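Appendix C reproduces, verbatim, an entry submitted by the partner laboratory led by Prof. M.T., so that reviewers can inspect both the input and the predicted structure.
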Amino acid sequence: EVSPEATVYAIIGLNGVVFLLWKSGQERMNSFHDSKMMAWMMRNFTAMWVNLKEGRIWTLVTPAFSHIEPMHLLINMFVLYSFGTDIARLIGPKRFLAFYLGAAACGNMISAYLRGVVMPRRTGNYSTAVQPAVGASTSVVGITTLFACLYPHATFQLFFFVPVPAWLATAGFIGWDVWRVMRSDRTKVDGAGHLGGAAAGLGYY
């Protein structure tokens, strides 16, 4: 049977592979003006309402293995390793993988629907409907939320040096994401996806 640690390492490895696919697509586009691979990645590894409308239901989970920016990848994988390993040991590797995928699906569904349907109707700005979301943040926020529920008085090192109780740090991040969503604009941080992941963590708990 696959160990909890191996499960986390496998998820990190898959994220690394997909990151290299993005880099390959960018290189093809920049060097040979060939955008086919980038278009394929956009259709299959990003969370967008148009992807779901066109039947690509797998894009509810594939963005949780998809990063374009190296710093985005490194931060998410660091947090995944830091908290995911303990959660995987606690609930077992199979349940952990199912939770990782479930949190991703929950977060990406909420994100795609909010950006593709709710925001355009509310603001009249339809640009959010075609802005892709990528990243393991949906799953990672689910993991950290579940961790905070199980160990509320554990210490999070906020910004690597500010000690904060897990429950307070998680509540603060959730509040920050609610504020982002209420602003009804699109920033580089997908607050709606984070909230979906947090909901999955709370639901599992």
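The chain has a mean pLDDT of 93. Additional entries are available on request from the coordinating office.
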